[in-house]
Design brief:
mainly alpha; 110 residues
């Protein structure tokens, strides 16, 4: 049973498309919510990278929708893939800032 579920998730195109859309919408909503929380708070060091991330995620979402509306033209599909790299890289940068920025600031003050 377990191997059937794992295989079906990755091999059925309808399931893959459904999960891709659900994860895309979830990421978009969470990014707006996270942006709201950060703007409300005092984490100034992350506001600009977070704005870039929210903008990139929103652009990625729009590219995905346009790719489907226009029946997957190759140029939009390639841009959508490139957008995923930008979103991923930006989110890694934000994680780096959140994790290591305080330790770098402490070393500068020594």
């Amino acid at each position: 049973y377990n191997s059937f579920v794992n295989l079906r998730i990755f091999s059925d195109p309808v399931t893959v498309q459904f999960l891709h859309r659900v994860f895309g919408i979830t990421l978009l909503l969470y990014s707006f919510y996270f942006f709201y929380l950060i703007n409300k708070g005092r984490m100034k060091k992350i506001i600009i990278p977070l704005r870039i991330a929210v903008l990139a995620i929103f652009a990625q979402f729009l590219l995905g929708v346009l790719t489907l509306i226009y029946k997957v033209p190759m140029n939009l599909a390639i841009i959508h893939q490139f957008g995923a790299i930008i979103v991923f890289t930006n989110l890694l940068f934000i994680m780096f800032i959140l994790r290591y920025a305080n330790s770098f600031n402490k070393q500068k003050n020594l």
